[in-house]
Design a protein that fits this description.
Helices cover about 0% and strands about 55% of the residues. The protein contains no helices and nine strands.
């Protein structure tokens, strides 16, 4: 039975962490985003996040987007500086054309930093991207 289940490969959907200026608190914050670089809308996007190391684990956070239009992006969550020293995992599940897609994106510990910034698709900003 398990061999009959087919989960297609995810392409053109990314998770990025961006260092942005917060006008309200006058600080630079790290924010995680999901980017849909596809030509179709993603439906029922579920994102489960957690940070972990050998000795520490953060709370598991769950996020849901009803729809993520084509060629767009959405903010997932604020990432505090402390958790950048942990492995940060984003499990993303969504439906496209009534097919379920699933992928895990992993930011390894200490890889989210200002030295690793690169141009991001669609956003017009720089950040750390996992494909």
């Amino acid at each position: 039975m398990k061999k009959d289940i087919q989960i297609p490969e995810v392409s053109n959907v990314y998770v990025a962490v961006v260092n942005e200026y917060n006008d309200i608190y006058k600080t630079h914050d790290w924010n995680a985003y999901i980017i849909n670089d596809k030509d179709v809308t993603l439906e029922m996007v579920l994102i489960v996040t957690r940070g972990y190391s050998e000795t520490k684990t953060t709370s598991t956070m769950r996020h849901k987007l009803e729809k993520l239009p084509s060629k767009s992006y959405a903010k997932i969550e604020l990432m505090q500086e402390d958790i950048l020293a942990l492995n940060n995992e984003f499990k993303v599940t969504f439906f496209e054309d009534n097919k379920m897609f699933d992928k895990t994106y992993l930011f390894r510990k200490n890889t989210v930093n200002k030295n690793a910034l690169q141009p991001l698709p669609l956003m017009g900003a720089k950040g750390v991207l996992v494909r």
